[in-house]
Amino acid sequence: MGESAEWRVGLGHDTHRLEEGRRLVIGGVEIDHHLGAVAHSDGDVLLHALTDAILGALGWGDIGEWFPDTAAEHEGADSAELLSKVLNRAFAAGWHINNVDGIVFAQKPKLSPYKEQIANRVAELLQVSAERVNVKAKTGEKVGPVGREEALCAEVVIMLVKKPE
Ligand code: CDP
Ligand code: ZN
């Protein structure tokens, strides 16, 4: 009897406050909008949720433990770099990405024009084909912090697999 593959599911969530005149970067894609994320880093909610999802799947804690936002070296850090540090550790431990599903919660701007580009960029960062990455968007129905355009949120689930040797 051959050994079977090992599977792990992980969940990530992130929130950033929105302010006038800041950069809005979602899934590594620069979005043209008058509001942007308040953050030490580039405030990429989707990549932060994705990084946490990988850490969660592997039982490796959370992004704040790996990259404390008090550390000066992480000021303005590119979220793609933080993701790649975690991802490379996962690869080194023999894990592969099976698939990713995510939701970005934003009242505005309309993200449908960017969804494909975001999914493609996330797939590129994860080194998987684009059909393994799905990105969805939801408004806040004009209620709550998302609906009032005070904040942006993201949720991600990821499935990791380790094939038998
Ligand atoms: O229709 P429902 O109430 O389920 O969702 P919604 O939050 O009103 O969003 C409707 C659709 O708009 C979503 O399914 C997304 O495809 C799109 N959307 C978007 O493109 N950009 C956003 N920031 C939010 C939603
Ligand atoms: Zn974040």
UniProtKB/TrEMBL annotation:
Enzyme Commission number(s) of this protein: 4.6.1.12
Site feature location: Transition state stabilizer: 40, 139
Cofactor: a divalent metal cation
Residue sites binding a divalent metal cation per the record: 14, 16, 48
Pathway(s) of this molecule: Isoprenoid biosynthesis; isopentenyl diphosphate biosynthesis via DXP pathway; isopentenyl diphosphate from 1-deoxy-D-xylulose 5-phosphate: step 4/6
Residues the record lists as binding 4-CDP-2-C-methyl-D-erythritol 2-phosphate: 14-16, 40-41, 62-64, 148
Protein name in the entry: 2-C-methyl-D-erythritol 2,4-cyclodiphosphate synthase
Native source organism of the sequence: Thalassoglobus neptunius
Phylogenetic lineage: Bacteria, Pseudomonadati, Planctomycetota, Planctomycetia, Planctomycetales
Name of encoding gene: ispF
